Amino acid sequence: MVLASQRGECVAIAPTITLASPGTASAVFLEGAEMMSSRLSPQVRANLTKKCQEFLNNHTSARPSSSSRSYGRNYSASTVPDVLNSFIRDTNAHVDKIMEDTTLRQRTLYLEMKSRTPADSASVPETVDMYDYYSRYETNDIFPIYCRAKNEPGSQSGEEVVLNINELGRHVDYVHVGILKMSADHHFLGYTLATSAATASFDLYLKDLRGNKSYGQVVQDITGFEWSHIFYDQKKVHTTLFFTKADMNNRPFQAWSVQIEICNEAVTYMSEPDLVFEEPDEACYVDLQRTKDGKFITITSNSKSSSEVHVVESQSPTLPPKCISPRVANVEYYIDHVQNSFYIVHNGRPASAETAGDPADYTLSTLSDKDLRHQNHPSKPFLGWKNVPIENSSHASSTAQIEDIDLVSEYCALFERSTRTGMPQVRVFPLDDASSITTLNLPSQVCNIEPGMNQDYFGHRLRLTLSSPLSPGKVLSYNMAEDSLETMREEPIIGFPRLDPQEFQCYTVMVKSHDGVEVPMTLVHRNGLANKHEAPALLHGYGAYGMNFDVSFHAERLSLLTRGWIVAFAHVRGGGELGRAWYNDGKGMKKTNSIHDYLACAEWLIEEGFTRPELLAGHGMSAGGLLLGAASNWRPELFRAMVMKVPFVDPLGSMCDPNEALTLHEYDEWGNPGKDHCVKQYIESYSPLQNVTSQKYPAMLVTGSTLDDRVPLKQPVSWVQRIRERRTNTDNSDPANLLLLHIDEDVGHFGEGGRYGHLKEAAFEYSFLEKALGL
C-alpha cells in the first residue's frame, strides 16, 4: 500500500524506459536545449518571437481525439505540427549556438555523474515464498534485468532471468515498461509495454516462466492490470485478468475483467471482456491492486481529496464487487487484507465523518470479512469499521503521521513522519496486540525511508532502505519476531572527484515565514561554509498535493557539493512533511503560503550569511515551477537564476478550461474559478503567467515537452514569451539575462528515463547555472 502514489504527480510503480534511436548517440548527450536568449541579435529575436506567437495562435483547447497525437494536454497533430516543428527547429539551432561554449563543461559534469553510478550492480535479494527476487545491471546496460533464484534447501537452479528490459528495446526506438506483476503462484509474469511515446496507454504481455514462453498484446490499450487466482486443469491454465481503461483524456475510469486460458502456444479468451466498474466522476482515477494475502482484487477510485474502494474475491472473480465504504467528501482511505480482516488507512472521522471539516491525519481501522458480507446499508459510510488503538508517540515527536503501512500475516509496519520535525520513522506491532508497538532505532540523520517489496506474506522480515543526500543507501532487514535489525548492504560513494561525507553537513533548520509559522529547510554543504556570503546556493521547492520533498541520495547533486555549492530544500506548506494540516495550509485559498515560505527560505540563506542574491538560484519542477514563477514575480532581486522544469505557470488558465485533461481532477488542489469568483480572483493574484511585470528577472532555464500530459506545452512557451516581452534586463552580453527554453519531443513530464538519461539533463542544468552565475 503506497498512500503517496494516490495523489499529485506520483505514478504507479513504473520504471520509464526510453531508448535513443539508432545513430543518435552523439546527439543525445548534448540533446536538448532550445533557447530564446537575450543574447540573440534583434532580427533573430524578432523572428523567434514571431514564430513563438504563431505557435501560440495555433493553440487549440479542443479535446484531442483518441487517435490524435497529444501535444501536452491541448495540441493535436492535425492542427499544429507544422508550426510546432518549425518553432522547435529554429529555436534549437539558436540554443546550440548560445550554449556551445559549455559543451566541455557539460561533458565533464556528465562523466563525473556517471562515474558515481556502478557500471554493474545488483540489488539485495528479497525473499518471496520460495524465491529470492532481485534486479541487476550489467556493464553498459541502460535498464535493469529482473531476476530470481530459488531459495529452497538443496536447490541448484541458479539465476533465472524474469525480464531483461534491455532486450525489449533492441529493435525499437522507444520502450516504456509501466508495471511488472507476478502471479501469486510465481509461474507467470505480466507486464505493460508501450513502444511509442505518443500514447499514454499500454499493451499487456504475459510470460510463462515455466517454459520461458511469451505472449504478446494479450490485452491492448490499458493503463493497469492485476492477476486473480490461477486455476490448473491438466495442461491448461485458467485465470481472470483485471485491467483498467482510460478515457479520451487519459483518465483511467473503467475496470474490466476477462477470463483467459493459457495453453500451448496461445492465450485464448474464454469470454468477452466484462465491464466490472466505471467511474463517471471526471475528478476520479481508477486503480487496481491485489491484497497482500492474494484474497482480493481492490478497485480504488480516488480524487485528490476522497476515495472509494470496491473489492472482488480473487477465487470468485465473476462475483460483483463489494464496496468497503461509500465516498465521503474530504475522506481518503486505502486498504489491504490479512487474517480475515481489511486494514484501512484513512483520514476520516468514523464517528462524525459526514459533518467533518478539514481532513484529519491518517489513522488505522479494520473491517472484518464477516462484517463486510453482512452489510445491509451499503450507502452508510464506515459501517463495521473498528479503530486500531495505536499509541501515537515515538522517539521523534509526540505526534506522527502515517504515510504508508506494510502488512504480513502476523505484523503491521507503520511508515510515519513526525508532524513537528518532518523526520521519518518506522514502528511495528503484532496484529493481535497493537499496544505492543516497537519503534525501530534508526540513525538520526536519515532523510528518507523507502520500503522494500515486502511481499513474503508468511515471513517476519521487513526490508527498508535508508538514505540522505550524503548517503547512497543502507539496506536494512528488521526481524519483527525477534526485534533485531540487520544491515544487508551499505552503499559507498564512488566516482570522481572523491567525496568524503565527513567533510559535509546535512541538517534541518526552521525558518520563520511571513505569518510566524516555522518552515523546515534541509541544508547540505561542505563544512565551514556558513557566514561567508561566498557560496553559490541552489534552493529546491515544490509544495503541492501533500507530497513530501525527495531528499534522498542523488549522485548528480554531489557535483554541486564538490564545487562548493549549498544545496537546500524548502519544505513549504502544501507538501506533506508535517501532516495533513501542513498540506491543507498550502492549497486552494491558502496557496500563497507556499510562495511566502519559499521566499522566507531564500531570505534566510542570505540573511544568515550562507550566500548572496548574486549566487542564489532556484529549482522547481511542475508545481514547483509555479512556486519559482511566483517568486520571480514577487521578489526577483533575491535570485540570480532559476531552473523551471515543465513549470505549471498558468493555473488560472488551466482551472478555467475544463477541456484540459487534468483540470477536473485538479479542482480539489487549486479550486474551481468557474464556480466561485473569489477563487478566480485569488488564483489570478499569484498565477505566474498573469503577473509578469516590467522589471528585472533572473536568468531562466525553462523546459517543456510535446508529450507532456500534465503541463501543456503552451504554458512554458507562453511564460518565456511574456518574460521576454516585459522584462527590463535585456543586455545581450550579460549571462545573468539568459532566457532558455528547452522543448523535448521524445520524453514526457518526468524527463528522460534509463540509468543515465537524467544525468544528461542535470549536466545541462548545472552548466546553465554556472554560466548564469558567472562561475
Can you tell me about this structure?
The structure is a single chain. The protein is an alpha+beta fold and about 775 residues long. The chain has 15 helices and 40 strands. The strands form nine sheets. An eight-stranded mixed β-sheet has the order 33-34-36-35-37-38-39-40, with helices on both faces. Strands 3, 4, 5, 6 and 7 form a five-stranded antiparallel β-sheet that branches. A hairpin with a 4-residue loop joins strand 31 and strand 32 (about 485-490). Helix 2 (about 40-55) crosses helix 14 (about 715-725) and helix 9 (about 590-605) packs across helix 10 (about 625-635). The protein is globular. Residues about 1-50, about 60-80 and about 350-355 have low confidence and may be disordered.
Spatial sequence of strands, sheet with the most strands: 33-34-36-35-37-38-39-40
How much helix is in the residues?
10-25%
- Terminal-residue CA separation: 45 Å
Strand content is 25-35%
Major sheet attributes: 8 strands, mixed
Mean pLDDT: 84
Low-confidence stretches: 2-51, 58-80, 350-357
Basic shape:
globular
* Oligomer class: single chain
Gyration radius over CA = 26 Å
**What is the helix tally?**
15
Which structural class do you get from the secondary structure elements? alpha+beta
Number of strands: 40
